[in-house]
Amino acid sequence: MNSTCAKWLIISRKAFKFLVTIDGASYGTHKRGISSVFSLFNLKEKSKFWNEAVIRRDFGDLETSISDKVGVANYTKAGNIASYLKLSEVDSMYLPVPVNFIFIGFEGNGNREFKLRVEELQRWFTKIDHIFEHTRVPHISGAFTQLYKNIDDKVQQHQLPIISHINYNFSVHAIQMGGKVSSVFERAIKILARRENVSDTRDGSDAIWQVDVDMMDVLFTSLVDYLQLESAYNLFILNPKPDNKKAKYGYRRGLSDSEINFIKENKSLQGKINEAGSVPQKFPDLFKSKRPLYEKNPMAKFAWTITEDTDTVEWYNLCLDALNNLEKLYQTKDTADTIQIKVMELLNGKNVDLKLLLEKELKSGDFRGLHAECLTDTWIGKDRWAFIDLSAGPFSWGPAVGGEGVRTELSLPNVERTIGAVEEISENEAEDRLQDAIQERFSVFGDNDHQAIDILLAEIDIYELFAFKHCKGRKVKLALCEELDARMTDMKSELQSFQDEEYDESHRRKAVEALKRMENWNLFSDPNEPFQNYTVARDTFLAHLGATLWGSMRHIISPSIADGAYHYYERISFQLFLITPQKVRHIKQLPVDLQALQDGLSSLLLPSQKIIFSPYMLPLSEDPALAMAFSVARRAAAVPLLLVNGTYRKTVSSYLDSSILQHQLRRLNEHQSLKGSHAHSRSTLEIPIFWFIHGDPLLVDKHYQAKALSDMVIVVQSEESSWESNLQCNGQSLLWDLRRPIKAALAATSEHLAGLLPLHLVYSQAHEMAVEDWIWSVGCNPLSITSPGWHISRFQSDTIARSYIITSLEESIQLVNFAVRLLTKQHTSDQTYKLFRSQERELVNKYNYVVSLWRRIASVTGELRYVDAMRLLYTLEDASNEFFHYVNETKALLHPINCTKERRVQVEFDMTTIPAFLIVLGILWLVLRPRRAKPKIN
Which of 189, 175, 191 is nearest to 224 (CA)? Predict the structure, then answer.
């Protein structure tokens, strides 16, 4: 028996994990199969889309319909077991994602009376890429690389492919709301808007206004609940008619800098706020009545719904009553009263972060850590909705210097700039422009005499240019254009007169050319001519809007995640190590709000998960080894800053090198488990969080307050309340309160837990690296820059759940594909047929069970029932392992037969073979011939 055959070893799961890690990089560039909206799976090339035929029929039917001789023939003819079972490697799996684009103010009563038509939406929104792959952003080693930039991906080994097997299949449902809904939002903007600068006494059209986004949150949430759209992701596109007295406005949570200074300088107002009680809820319960807009979100196709006013009349009446009551409340209030009402709303509202911050600042009275949030025209809500207001702003934010993909004033489509730019001029304006054109054209003639034909040609040039600009493509014809049309008829007659013999050849040639040129014109009188300028402007606007909505799907609905495998655990154990310079009597005396931190960490968990929160205090004064590790990792760097006002500044900042610190902490804990992946329980994940409290300003890797590492999270806290960052919004530097790094800590923990990244980052297949787009870095969540809030949105909690699901599906696909490759290498023969038949039924059943779990998980995920999908992940892992191990058992069972095949030795004879045989026989005879016995002599 061949020794290589005898050394067959069944590949264990551990060995498989090693193999797929090595091959992981190749998966990132695997060849894509043909995509289909209607298929759940896409198999590799030379295979068909997934359908019921892939799953084997019942074995009772097979056994009665196929005889042994035919079965053996089919088995041997297949060549290998995978072909015989018709098993192919799975290349892609599709997860349905329902999305609603809800258009408000596009029924013809919004800004510029812009009205969207059904055919336009179908024309432009079917151009959006509805299917694209889930992607991962490679990690970066070292402390000197900003964010997730270009790296040498060739030397990295990935646990899972950068471009995933999992694809998102978006079912886009566009909904156009009626006039009543538009009027509610226009009225809400008018009532909820406050002057950003309380001391600004200019006319309202020149001032900047801030709209209370917390109150708008109630409107959006109530509309989604009323129409029962909670089972989809909803993106609102607003085009309200702007109020002439409040021309420029934006959305903000909390107070402006002017209002904060007003409170700071007004001690009597502080006293009133401290003495005041709770503020009653201004909005009534708007969710009592619900009217479903559709029974189920249509999948795998573009759909369009136009709501009638009767669909929303009850919601409209409730909102209008609430807004009228708010208007009465604010009408008689001065600036101090209005600010007091707003502060009391924040103190009694649901925004825990703002509530805690205001309470501390009011208690201290210095308001150093209270900074205004950015004015924005986009927002991500706490539930599954976000909005864009095309009439607000425009605004800008992002890196102050050297950034890419920054949000500028031209980043969003604007009705005013596109549709308003081609607004049709009046009769008087048309006459003035025509006169200006005539004067400009004939000014080149001077006082010299010119031929009549030249003057006539100049007149034609003027009319042609004017007609293309102001007559062609107009919705309403100008009377001046009709006059010019008549004049053009007369000019044709005059040109024809130049063809007489009395004019020289050059004049006749010019006249003929001009007549040919005019014959191709139809500038004034074609009734079927479309509104060309207006149509081009609409197409430009819709193209820009389509690109913006595509970006929303990539950044907030299905964003890229950090490279890695993120598994679901039933319990998450947060081990918080509070590292202080000196020992304090009790952990509660530390300047860390443990309850707020625990609440924030709890928000990262799914409803089916349980939290274990264990804080520990580690003073450096009592642990020399830890103090040494801290000192070794501490660095200083000269950081050049170019501020938004153009001022250059060089600052020397102190920071912790995360790589060195991680190495030192590992050495200190060689006998303790710091790595969550090494938890001894399958159902518990341990996450160590090292929280360094320091007096002087201290960062991590020069630019961060917190950093997620492979086996820990590092957070730094210092006493600086207004640290000027390298980010800006609307021309002002963003200030960080280094005393409260909860937002940064939650962002880093979410990356360590499930791979969540800042909202501006996404992986680009074209660039093969992460790219930035700051449009959607908004909302009061840990992943945005425009707000210090740290509330997890449903978008992010769903991303966490999908991260667990995709990891399980990806590993299952890799395991099944590896098993299929093993079956492909197992050749079929007559000798192995009967033995394989004893294994075939169970093998196919286990395979079909894995496939049924894939389908079930995809279906449940498409309905956004993530908790139900979590219950299937452990079952999928076990089923995949059982199939893989059974494939190994089958191969091991067939292996002895394959290794003992009959072999024939074929010897070829030629003329040189016979002499060789004779020589060999002669030698053997001489050696082995019998010898005569010698006589024995004494």
Answer: 175
pLDDT of res. 396: 93
Give backbone dihedrals phi and psi of 714, rounded to 5 degrees, phi first: -115, 130
Provide the residue type at 760 as one letter: H
What's the CA gap between 623 and 631, in Å, rounded? 12
Angstrom distance (rounded) from CA 670 to CA 672: 6
Indicate the residue type of 491. Answer: M
Question: What pLDDT score was predicted for residue 737?
Answer: 92
- Spell out the residues 6+ positions from residue 790 whose beta carbon is closer than 8 angstroms to its own: 353, 600, 742, 743, 746, 780, 781, 782
CB atoms within 10 A of CB 53: 9
In this structure, the strands spanning 571-580 and 610-619 are: parallel
Angle at 530 between CA 525 and CA 534, to 5 degrees: 120
Q: Evaluate whether 812 touches 876 at the Cβ level (below 8 Å).
A: yes
Question: Which among 136, 167, 137 has a CA at the least distance from the CA of 37?
Answer: 167
Contact 342, 252 (CB under 8 A): no
pLDDT tens digits along 347-367: 888 888 888 888 888 887 778
Closest CA to 48 of 95, 96, 94, 86: 86
Q: Which residues contact 327 (CB under 8 A, 6 or more apart)?
A: 191
φ/ψ of 635, rounded to 5, equals -135, 165
User: What secondary structure does DSSP assign to 149-207, as a single string?
Assistant: ----GGG---SS-SEEEEEEEEEEEEEE--HHHHHHHHHHHHHHEEESSTT--S-TTTS
Q: CA 821: distance to chain centroid?
A: 34
3-state secondary structure of 399: strand
Q: Give the integer Cα–Cα distance in Å for 228 and 234.
A: 11
Mean pLDDT in order along the chain per 10 residues (938 residues): 37 32 34 33 36 40 54 88 91 92 90 82 72 87 42 58 92 89 94 89 77 93 91 95 85 92 88 71 54 57 73 89 87 84 86 86 82 94 95 90 85 80 65 80 63 78 75 67 78 76 75 75 51 65 90 93 94 94 89 94 95 93 89 87 69 89 85 46 87 93 92 94 89 91 96 95 90 94 94 96 96 95 91 88 94 95 94 95 94 75 55 75 76 51
Whether omega before 161 lies within 30 degrees of 0, making that bond cis, reads no
For 95, residues 6+ apart whose C-beta sits below 8 A from its C-beta are: 166, 167, 168, 169, 802, 805, 806, 858, 861, 862
C-alpha span between 559 and 567 (Å, rounded): 18
pTM over 0.85, yes/no? no
Confidence at residue 67, expressed as pLDDT on a 0 to 100 scale: 59
Packing angle of the helix pair 335-347, 257-265 (nearest 10 deg): 100
Written as one string, the DSSP assignment of 867-910 is HHHHTTHHHHHHHHHHHHHHHHHHHHHHHHHHHT----------
CA–CA distance, 447 with 914 (Å, rounded to integer): 120
